[in-house]
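Notes continue from the previous slide.

Worked example: a multi-chain complex. Inputs as given:
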Amino acid sequence: MNRYETVFILTPVLSEEQAAETVDKFKKFLKGKGASIKHEENWGLRKLAYPIQKKTTGFYYLMEFEAPGEVITPFETEFRRDERVLRFLTTAMDKFHTLYAESRRNKAKEKKETKAEA
Amino acid sequence: MADEIRYLNPIDIETKQEKYCRFKKHGIKYIDYKDADFLLKLCNEQGKLLPRRLTGTSLKYQRKVAQAVKKARHLALMPYVADMLK
């Protein structure tokens, strides 16, 4: 079971629930293949550094999961098939990457708490 | 007595500032492709990667930086070509 991290961009044309529905589709696909999702982040609508398919903004979504190796290629063909996804990138997470991801998560949590208190 | 030339104020020869690899010094082990503003520090105005002789980073981390910047460009977090980025 290796650890992977996927970031993908959805077209801005979608409404909120359509975007959420596509994300659920990928989550179900992963769960169906026996992967366990560790962490998700929704960066929401962000400006792209250069236009992709004539669009200048996109919904960014990050997913961190643990899965056996052979799940990745069908997962990526799933991304290629879905035309709502502008771009995706799956990276394998080595030891330092996982440590970094955890520390990033704690920092985000602390920031949220301090914001909640303030 | 030509050798006894004394300057009014001592000429400050530009001391060569010792370059260091910022990743080794601060003990950074992983360069994240997601935070673009850190990667922008290692690029010039056109968004191109700065060479090692200017940034002083070691070869091992320069390769990691290059990979991270290319992933960030793929995800449109960083531009391939930019003008007046900073």
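Summary box: The mean pLDDT of chain B is 86. The radius of gyration of chain B is 19 Å.
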